Amino acid sequence: MSHSSKGAIYMAAAANLLIAVAKFAGAAITGSAAMMSEGIHSLVDTGNQGLLLLGLKLSHQEPDVRHPLGYGKETYFWSFLVAVMIFGLGAGVSIWEGVDKILHPHALDIHVVASFGGFDIRTYHVVFSILIIAMVLEGAAFRTAYKTFRAQNPDKTIIKAVHSSKDPTVFVILFEDSAALCGLLVAFVGIAAAYLFDMPVLDGLASVMIGLILAVTAFFLAVECKGLLIGESANAQSREKIARMVAAIPGILGVNEIITLHHGPQNVIVCVSVDFDDQIGSPQVEAAVSRLETDIRAAIPEVSKVFIEAQNWRSHQRLLAPNRAETPV
């Protein structure tokens, strides 16, 4: 996890906390369901950033007897939990607030909050000011997350980069900030329409739309994090590097199988099964294994463990055959 990635999380957390306080104040002044939904959204996002930071801290624990491969997947678990939080708290409460407002509509409060130089500052002035300031802060947080994400994935489209990324913390923040900006726009339009047409039901509809935006965001985040939790291989470039390095080692006749697994954003496990020339002795085999592990670690710094199996190709295929036969079609 880079310092820039942590910076994106801290930036998002600070912005969301300030925005949440302002939104709740606006909701209290006007009684707006959309504003209340936005406040809950920002508060949930603040808690989510705390969970991401907790996951990062726990993922750096040293391996022990119970977890010999380390705690790298802590990052994936807490990122998945963030998706659940967005869906359960953010989306669920927003939709409930909106439906309640639609079923029991009441006019948004309009009164003078303060006066300066003969100009009356009314509740809607305060609410729209809060929303505009929130857009600026969320925009700054989104810009930080976007720059960090693009720096990690300069040559890919956003969708491909998210799908191939092994570090969920940055794209979680990116998705959250995107949803926040969309929610703010919906809240702005919904509250403005409710005031303009004197139809408080539009405020409730805006709250429901905000909840749906959060639900869709949570679903996509959960799907991406699920893949990482189950276990994803290293990228194609890394796998090709390993195959070339194996082929370059003298005494190796062929590669039976190469398995790579991300056990965290910067934690890759490599398992290689190779067929050695029967004419070489154990000292040469040991030297070849040591060289291969050294080459792999040097070429792919995120590799934490390398397991190399020496096995005849035909024997390897026979052992794989029962598993293939049991695989459902």
Key attributes of the depicted protein:
two-stranded antiparallel sheet, three-stranded mixed sheet, single chain, 10 helices, Alpha-Beta Plaits, 329 residues, alpha+beta, Alpha-lytic protease prodomain-like, 2 domains
How are the secondary structure elements laid out?
Blueprint: H1 3-30, H2 33-59, H3 74-103, E1 112-116, E2 119-122, H4 123-152, H5 158-164, H6 168-197, H7 201-230, H8 236-247, E3 252-264, E4 267-276, H9 282-299, E5 303-310, H10 313-326
Parallel strand pairs: 4-5
Antiparallel strand pairs: 1-2, 3-4
Helix pairs in contact: 1-2, 1-4, 1-6, 2-3, 2-6, 2-7, 3-7, 4-6, 6-7, 8-9
Question: How would you characterize this protein structure?
Answer:
- There is one protein chain.
- A hairpin with a 2-residue loop joins strand 1 and strand 2.
- 69% of the residues lie in helices and 12% in strands.
- Helix 1 packs parallel to helix 6, helix 2 packs parallel to helix 7 and helix 3 packs antiparallel against helix 7.
- By secondary structure, the chain is α+β, with helices and mostly antiparallel strands.
- It contains ten helices and five strands.
- It folds into two domains: 228 residues, Cation efflux protein transmembrane domain (Alpha-lytic protease prodomain-like), CATH 1.20.1510; 91 residues, Alpha-Beta Plaits (2-Layer Sandwich).
- The longest helix is centred in the first third of the chain and has 30 residues.
- One of its GO terms (molecular function) is monoatomic cation transmembrane transporter activity.
